[in-house]
Hints:
Oligomer: single chain
Distance between the termini: 99 Å
Helix content: under 10%
Amino acid sequence: ASSLPSVTIQNPLISIAFLMFPVVLNKAQKLKLITSHTLLCVGAGGWSPLDSDHYQWLQVDLGIRKQVTAIATQGRYSSSDWTTRYRLLYSDTGRNWKPYHQDGNIWAFTGNSNTESVVRHDLQHAIVARYLRIIPLDWSEEGRIGLRIEIYGCPYWADVINFDGQGVISYRFKMKKMKILKDVIALKFKTAESEGVILHGEGQQGDYITLELRRGRLLLNQYGSILGHTSVTSGSLLDDHHWHSVVIERYRRNVNFTLDQHTQHFRTNGEFDHLDLDYELTFGGMPYSGKPISGGRRNFKGCMESINYNGDNITDLARRKKLDTSKIYAGRNLTFSCVDSHTFPVFFNATSFLQLSGRREHNMVSVGFQFRTWNPNGLLLFSSLADGMLEIALNDGKVTAHINVTQQKNSRVDIASGSGLNDGEWHDVRFLAKENFAMLTIDGDEASAVRTNAPIQITTGGTYHFGGKCYFLWTQASPFQRSFQGCMQLIQVDDQLADLTAVEQGRLGAFENVSLDMCAIIDRCMPNHCEHGGRCTQTWNSFSCSCDGTGYTGATCHTSVYEQSCEAYKHLGRSSDLYWIDPDGSGSLGPFKVICNMTEDKVWTTVVNNLPAQTSVTGSSRERRTVLQLNYSATMEQISAITSSAEHCEQHVAYSCRMSRLLNTPDGTPYTWWVGRANEKHFYWGGSAPGIQKCACGIERNCTDPKYHCNCDADQKQWREDSGLLVYKDHLPVSQVAVGDTNRPGSEAKLTVGPLRCQGDRSYWNAASFNTPSSYLHFSTFQGETSADISFYFKTSAPYGVFLENLGNTDFIRLELKSPTVVSFSFDVGNGPVELNVHSPTPLNDDQWHRVSAERNVKEAILQLDQQYREVRPAPEQGHTRLELYSQLYVAGGQRGFLGCIRSLKMNGVTLDLEERAKVTPGVKPGCSGHCTSFGMYCRNGGKCVEKYNGYSCDCSGTAYDGPFCTKDVGGFFEAGTLVRYNLVPDVVVAASSLDSKSVVQSLPTETNLTREDLAFSFSTSSAPSILLYISSRTQDYMAVVLRQNGTLQLRYNLGGLREPFTVDLDQRNLANGQPHSVNITRVERDIYVQVKEDIIHSLSVPHVFSEEHDSNLPGENTGQIDPVLIEKYNTPGFVGCLSRVQFNSIAPLKAALRTQVPAPVSHQGKLVESNCGASPLTIPPMSAATDPWHLDGVIPDGVNRNSAIIGGIIAVVIFTILCTLVFLIRYMFRHKGTYHTNEAKGRESSESADTAIIGTDPNFTETIDESKKEWFI
Length: 1274
């Protein structure tokens, strides 16, 4: 292409009126702008170039700089010509054009779809320019490019000062040594330099403030007081010679720093609010005093306008020379008009090239240029030599030069220089090659220039191609390098600066798909869309975020990878441990570590501090107190998030004293106080309450000296202590303790401040129930312009319903259950509706809790269901990114109302208080029941889920386990002589005398089936033989599990009618190896199923019993004794080791022995110590015969006195049997052999349960119980 056909509209020449309407600048002024360009197609109203291609543009000259706020377009009158999409460029001088940006992109405006309709766009950000250029991108398929335009705006005027890098303006304060509390500084600047001080002020005390350009970024430095240095960076690519607006607003230590409508809010470091400066501020550079603070920084070179400091217009005062010499001093080399830049940038995309001519058949190559890009790779320059080729490329951020001469052997040059040159800044490249010499210089650094003396002969071809496309076309091969995407300027060929204006006019060279006199580079990482400290990297077309080490994930590091609280971890099935939590999710608070203690009914969150226990304090007095500072494992903001959502918080404090008073009397000045979360002093101690200057003993009236309200206030020489819990959570945690009475002789104190402990998470269970389709809750408008996340739990039996909805003019956001298996997330940010659907393989209206999380950011939209099913939709590369909503947020509203429960609704990290709003809303109830339907599966090993208002708990009382989810083994270590005995059915008469009827019922076994047993336990031991378990009855029937001499396991059954006990070896391995082994045994009638560890033993059968009277029932009828064979063979040395998770049917005897809080018919002999049974193999000597619990009479060392032992055992059993004869006779009279017949008890309607009804109406109930009476021996 040789030229860019264009139309320039100038004011006030009028020859052919083709505008839709005159350009409107304000209500009182109208300008008609037309053209006389020869390429204009006339005859119908509007502009239409003769050629409809992508090289056409329409330029408007507004005469002077104006502020443009809107643009409207229309097709050419009475034709088929219109423009469907276009870009807008603007400039002050008609050179160095800047494309209009919106939402971080070079914006493409939507045009017309016919000739008559008017499409108007209000600019998101007003622009100030004299020249406008409209670039058609797409047009009518039925005709050609056609356009009528109208521009809306208003006049603009500003004083301009040009700084040449030498002169500065000094603004002097009215008073010397100003202590400034509030500042407002505003100015606009433009420059082509990447370095320079824009303003500076300093004081003799070391305070200063500096605003400067550094590497094309704006850096604000402020220093005030000790440790008060604050540094904030904003923007990038500010050396583009376009206007940029800066506003700095400071009040005390709070600062708003705004650059081009992007505002950063921050708080300066240090302890003081004033900025102590000298008597002046300088604009354009450092002061002339040459103080060391300058550090060799360069002055600003460029233009500034509208400089304003606290209401004073600095530029106007300087221009009009209304000089008050105490305030304004204009330095040298300042002019009041902006000097235009002499650079002519060229913008390349992936399909661009620029061709320039050089000397042909010359023996030297000399080229130079400046470039800027974000891409690490790209071909910068290609030239065909007479007998070879030259390439200059960017590879992995380095510039490489490659020469290959084909006619000569070993004639090759490969050199590289620089690093990280894809940083978006301008970099200068100089390459020189001649006979046997080549040199590559980057950024003018001659010292680091790369040289080579490789043997080579150069003969130039005379043509140089910048941008790379021609190389790929000519070689017809896949390129090693990518095409260059970026900008170039100051291009030199053969040491001559290329005349790019002549290139634009078609008088020199050639080009394709380049944009001349414009650099359309965009910093997609500024402002940084990577949240929470994510690192942003970019290429020319996109950016990406690295979230490593941030604790967040997602395309923009928006979503926390941690749960919000210990409560949330518990309901994921986690146990007590150290966890990272993030209470506000995607909010500003970062994640932090806490200790989570999951108890059976509560979840405790613990935050520790660094104060050692019993910290000694001496030498303090009321006048000079010793202040102990406490630092926690989390910030105060993070701790506040815990306490605000907790149901209860507490912190233990203890003051041990000897002649050291604590609080004094309630009316006196306290000696010691503590500081809480809000930096307020508190004069009460642990065990007391706010406003009551007492200790715990003062509240309970049991202090050492009743005249005082603290033990330490008695001022005694003996050690005393005042301790207790601080429970007012709005005051917690303790951040400081000031001690004031340890300076007297003999006076001493020791302070302990425990960790902060909080229980519960109200936000996690904050729920509302929606009972009618028309019920809803409303909240303020959701603010999530560029980044939004929503998460909640829902439970419903309805097939559909809207969870939440928020509307704007055209924008909206909605989450709904579209069908029983589909959750939908839909929104519109101006690019048209987008809908994400996640399908569940199972119905979601199952009245169980399901979790929904949705996120939308500038990169993508995500919908996730139950942390398992998800859909991701990338955002369009070009388009709107801001979600603009205006209506209220409706929860469970809309035409398809929601029926069910919603809880833990979080939006951008903020939990909406559904319960509080539900209290005052008809049709909505606070809270939601039925948590066990969703979370009951976490109650393991037979634990029962118990409903609570704000959650659930697991009842482990009927299991052999403990812990919040019934997963913690309960075990005990058995020493020599230890025995646990459990009466499966306590004596009814005794129980009734000591317990109420309800307790008696609860203590009775739930099984009445005597033809089945379920036994499970785990053991570890290193000694054998031993008896592990023995279940006996008042007959000869029993069941026993023994460990034989060789360590093998044996099961022994003696059921009524068997002549000999039935025995089976369960495992042939030596199990007395110190390792844990689990055993599960189930008997149904005569069939026995056994599992040892993971090994399944095939089912076994007890031999057939001929007498129906003893048909495999346990126990049988006859009275018997403890099997003497067991005692003889397996009792010595007895069991020494660990037993755990022992359970027989629904009874856990070992747990009952170790958990004495609940009354149970259990006792133990010897020392029983609770153990996790995970220790190393035990090596304990055998117990002495005197302490053997199995010996009911006599001593049996190594089987010597076996007969006497057997006789003694028989005598004991006989005595026991005689005492129970009456009971057995009564039982036998009412016994139905082989079966049980149950009848509904009368009076069941008025009883609490079926068991209660039976006890109250059946006179034989007590006798029936004795039939199944057994004992455990462990």
